[in-house]
Structures are given as C-alpha cells and as structure tokens.
Amino acid sequence: MTNHRRSAQRFVRRLANSQFDDVFNPYSDACGNHDGADAPAIRRRNLTLVLEAALTSGVDSFWIARDLGYRGGRRTGLALTDEVHLAAHGGLYGDLPLARATRGPVVAERTATTIWQVLRGLRRPVFLWNVFPFHPHEPDDAMSNRCHTRAERQACRPLLIWLLEALQPKTLVAIGRDAQIALDDLDITAQKVRHPSYGGQAEFISGMEAHYGICAAPRAAQGSLF
C-alpha cells in the first residue's frame, strides 16, 4: 500500500467518524429511502480513490463550495458531483472506477451540471470540496438543504487545512458568496466566483472562463461526453 493511499484512507476515516445533529454524513450514514447496499462504504471508496489520485498526480486548482446538497454529494460522496457526472469525475484522474451508492433512477443536480460544463472545457486536474463536507438539513426534512453553522464549520477546519497542505493547489476558488464568507472566517484566502444556482449560471461560467482563459463547452454537448 502506498503512502498516498494510506493518507487518503486515514482522511476518509476521519470524515466517517464525524457526527453532527441534523447532518447526513455520506461516509457513515445510510439513507433508507435511496441508498443501496453498502452505500457508505461505496462513498468512502469513491472519495478515497479520488483523493489518492489527487495526492499522487497533483492538482492545478481546488474549487470549494459551501456544503453537500441532497441531490449531489449526499448521494455520491463527492463534492459538486451528481450521479450523472460520476464517470466524468473519475476521468479527471485517468479512469477511476467510481460507483453509484444509490438505487433507482440516476439523479441530476443543476449546480453539478454547470460545474461539469466548465470542467469539461478546462481539462486539467481540479479537486472539488466543500467548506462543510457533509449534508446539513432542516431538523424535520432530511431531503432539504440548509447552511451549516459556524460551529460546524470550525469543527471541520482541520480537515480543510490538511487537504490544502497535502494537495498544494496553485489556485483556490471559492464558489459562491457563502463559501467566500466561510473561508474568510477560517482565515483562508481564495478567489471568488458567483455560485451557479439561483440565476448565477452565466456569471459563474464567464467568471471561470476569464480566470482560466477558456471557453466552456455549451450545455447541449454534455450528453455526448458525460
């Protein structure tokens, strides 16, 4: 076993051992409505494979949003990645065998669709993460999204610091105002771009195009590639 694999496994174990009220931890919790057999183990393996590959090959950029959503990372275990784009995420580092952890129809997330539209045109290794790497939800609605609290954010700061120190990205990009505010609170400096949700898709794409000097692929072309 390589040092990078051991490091990735230790990190994912730390994630799996984290527990908060009204928070779904995809690396240890199972959803009775949507998850298949061994879902937490599958999500742990997905993240371990991605992190090991990132540690081994290095990354150009580190994109960080606020927290996992119920249609995306809650199901896949990967930030800013829905089930539609699991294979594309594996392709960032070659051809990682990432797997679905849920049953039923594949679920798409609007934010993930836009994120991967830009990544398709970027064609360089990017590590995707969240300030709070779990799915916080309202007390009586597990299939809702809420913003994490400051206490939750601070509790996860050591995990984020470890990732940044281990991966040493050239560029750190905060996706959305909430992520930027959270990073400021953690004394971490990042370039900010508009979040693609709530009408921000065009501004997000143009911001990323300007930063990287690329032309993001049109949405219509996504189906043939991902």
Automatic annotation (TrEMBL):
Organism of origin: Bradyrhizobium elkanii
The protein's name: Uracil-DNA glycosylase-like domain-containing protein
Domain of life: Bacteria
Sequence ranges assigned to domain Uracil-DNA glycosylase-like in this UniProt record: 114-198
CDD domains: UDG_like
